[in-house]
């Protein structure tokens, strides 16, 4: 087991090169679905949690995407790839060109089962490169066998990305990663620290040019220009006791928002999109977990009422971004190819 290295955009091992989309270009929207088994989010991780009953319910959400000509990337894990009730759904979406497939590594349910099951090891970047690569290789082969497409896009479960992950992706000929969650620090849980990143895409890697398309996570509010330092201060132990983070949010000064219909309201998603657009962003990623497609599997969608609200937030945001803002739907692979064709130095 290894401790993840703190990453930052200028880290010499990443060899990162920013991707700049012209300001006059229409903003692009990607959708990435963490397509995984169901489990109790408040219970310890367990190898026996492999149910994928929610996966067929993704077909109802796909109808929403179809109406907006959105082609999601379904990053799937080992239980989804190896159970026909789930893999058949993903295969049909890929074969009909309504969705793309990628890999999503949950170490505790992916062989080989050599590590202890605990919170630290739930981050694949803590396993050591040999174990991490062995698991990712098994997952990659399973997806190719069951879906008929070798995955080239990767998202680490629990955002467990590190320098060892980069080496694994290079060795297994991946093209893109979508694991980085900007502004988030998981180090207190023995996970990676992405606090120095923003939502801007970049190329990275030593032996292969890998595209990173981070989750969209940013600040909204009139104090967002000092968002990092202000939010960090508000989360300090002393100020947390007076709930300064909540005060900043309620007053409209500062709100850290992830572009997800699970964790954010429609107004919050609109606000952070407007703020990021004003600050020059031109690529955005909506993310959510596949178990939210059926009530009762995630903290975000517990009831039928929650489910209707979740779908309404998703649909309303797509309408806002692709309608009111004049945005366009994109895919991770399409974006990578377009950038590479436009810049011969990459």
The CATH architecture of the largest domain would be Alpha-Beta Barrel
Kindly report how far apart the N and C termini lie. Answer: 33 Å
- Mean pLDDT, nearest integer? 93
Give the tally of β-strands. Answer: 12
- As a percent range, the share of helical residues equals 25-40%
Describe this structure in words.
The protein has 346 residues and is of the alpha/beta class. The protein folds into 2 domains: 24-216 and 259-342, Alpha-Beta Barrel (TIM Barrel); 220-255, no CATH class. It contains 11 helices and 12 strands. It has helices at 58-67, 78-82, 84-95, 129-147, 163-171, 227-234, 237-240, 244-250, 266-278, 304-324, 332-342; strands at residues 17-18, 28-35, 73-76, 100-105, 153-156, 176-177, 202-204, 210-212, 217-220, 255-258, 283-289, 328-329. Strands 1, 2, 3, 4, 5, 6, 7, 8, 11 and 12 form a 10-stranded mixed beta sheet that branches. A two-stranded antiparallel sheet has the order 9-10. α9 (266-278) packs parallel to α10. 46% of the residues are buried.
Please describe the structure with a list of short key phrases separated by commas or semicolons.
346 residues, TIM Barrel, 11 helices, 10-stranded mixed sheet, alpha/beta, 2 domains
What secondary-structure arrangement, pairings included, does this model have?
Blueprint: E1 17-18, E2 28-35, H1 58-67, E3 73-76, H2 78-82, H3 84-95, E4 100-105, H4 129-147, E5 153-156, H5 163-171, E6 176-177, E7 202-204, E8 210-212, E9 217-220, H6 227-234, H7 237-240, H8 244-250, E10 255-258, H9 266-278, E11 283-289, H10 304-324, E12 328-329, H11 332-342
Parallel strand pairs: 2-3, 2-11, 2-12, 3-4, 4-5, 5-6, 6-8
Antiparallel strand pairs: 1-7, 7-8, 9-10
Helix pairs in contact: 4-5, 9-10
């Amino acid at each position: 087991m290894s401790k993840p290295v703190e990453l930052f955009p200028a880290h010499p091992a990443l060899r990162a090169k920013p991707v700049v989309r012209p300001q006059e270009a229409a903003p692009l929207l990607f959708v990435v679905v963490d397509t995984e088994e169901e489990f109790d989010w408040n219970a310890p991780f367990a190898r026996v949690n492999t149910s994928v009953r929610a996966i067929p319910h993704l077909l109802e959400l796909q109808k929403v995407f179809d109406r907006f000509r959105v082609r999601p990337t379904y990053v799937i894990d080992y239980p989804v790839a190896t159970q026909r009730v789930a893999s058949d759904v993903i295969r049909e979406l890929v074969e009909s060109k309504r969705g793309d497939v990628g890999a999503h590594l949950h170490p505790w349910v992916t062989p080989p089962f050599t590590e202890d099951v605990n919170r630290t090891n739930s981050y694949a970047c803590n396993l050591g490169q040999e174990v991490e690569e062995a698991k990712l290789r098994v997952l990659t082969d399973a997806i190719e066998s069951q879906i008929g497409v070798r995955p080239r896009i990767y998202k680490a479960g629990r955002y467990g990305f590190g320098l060892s992950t980069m080496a694994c992706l290079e060795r297994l000929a991946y093209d893109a990663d979508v694991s980085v969650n900007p502004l988030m620090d998981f180090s207190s849980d023995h996970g990676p620290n992405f606090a120095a990143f923003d939502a801007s895409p970049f190329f990275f890697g030593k032996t292969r040019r890998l595209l990173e398309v981070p989750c969209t996570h940013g600040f909204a509010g009139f104090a967002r220009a000092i968002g990092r330092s202000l939010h960090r201060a508000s989360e300090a132990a002393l100020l947390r006791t007076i709930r300064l983070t909540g005060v900043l949010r309620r007053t409209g000064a500062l709100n850290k928002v992830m572009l997800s219909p699970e964790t954010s309201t429609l107004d919050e998603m609109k606000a952070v999109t407007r703020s990021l657009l004003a600050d020059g962003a031109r690529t955005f990623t909506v993310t959510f977990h596949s178990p939210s497609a059926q009530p009762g599997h995630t903290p975000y969608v517990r009831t039928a009422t929650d489910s209707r609200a979740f779908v309404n937030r998703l649909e309303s945001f797509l309408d806002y971004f692709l309608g009111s803002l004049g945005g366009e739907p994109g895919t991770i692979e399409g974006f990578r190819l377009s950038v590479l064709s436009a810049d011969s130095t990459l």
